[in-house]
Automatic annotation (TrEMBL):
Organism taxonomic ancestry: Bacteria, Pseudomonadati, Pseudomonadota, Betaproteobacteria, Burkholderiales
Positions of the 6-phosphogluconate dehydrogenase NADP-binding domain: 5-164
Name of the protein described by the UniProt record: 3-hydroxyisobutyrate dehydrogenase
Protein species of origin: Rhodoferax lacus
Entry annotated with the keyword Oxidoreductase: yes
Molecular functions per Gene Ontology: 3-hydroxyisobutyrate dehydrogenase activity; NAD binding; NADP binding
Amino acid sequence: MTKQKIGFIGLGSLGEGLCNSLVKAGHPVTVNDLNKNLATKLLQAGATWSDTTAGACQDADIVITVLPSPAVSRQVVEGKNGVFDNLKAGGIWIEMSTTDMDDLLRLSDVAKAKGIKVLECPVTGGVHLANSGEITVLVGGEEDTFKQVEDVLKTIGGEIIYMGKMGNASVVKVVTNMLAFIHLIAAGEAMMLPAKFGVDPDATYRAIRASSGNSFVHETESKLVLSGSYNVKFTMDLACKDLGLVNGIAEKLGVPLELGSMAQQIFRRARGLMGGNAQSPEVVRMLEKACDLELRAPGYPTELLAE
């Protein structure tokens, strides 16, 4: 069976990993990003480079975007000579960015008026799972369109969950990120208290991991705190963007997110102190500075790898 031609736009830490899974599976993929250097490994593996969005869309059956903000997504897809101007009628735009739900719904209507089908497919589970094809993909949109690209999505992700109508996946995606940020703050506090009492942070980490208080975030990102790298390949800017999205939805729906709004304020403060390019687990550094104690233990990894 002939594999569908794919245009892939956005090669940050997440996008490059997702695209790598497609290239390894033998899909004809044309890639585009503002920084060509981010495509080096993909080009060596067999991808084709385009200097423009238009070139990435040319002859494509599917165009996938993985972009850092709603504003960038808007520019890439509906800006002059963007995706909507160049993807053929009947083609499918898959938005894998974590983006503004209302804007996505508007863009979906614009695309449909041009004969372009749309799916939202945000991913969750950690950037480290993108390269291995084990990341979870949440799918929103027409089920018939989902069926057309299901095999492609199975190449990208381990678990593919169809969420229903457009918008559903975006809501659940930002909720999962909110939980991760809350868990990260909580894990930092949970490890700091025993450390101040004199407990070995390694012993505390292992005790929490084996307890009812365990979480996926503790099992993964706490390791990066203990190694001192903090490098989860996800920045403060992205964390604040996602927390803004989830709290914005909650405001519209009248849902009081007390922990969600508190997490947003904590991350805003961390970004103010450490900058937007600081890694999201560096939120724990604020607590380390307040307590004048770094949470460190030997033998912990400086980056997360798929197991």
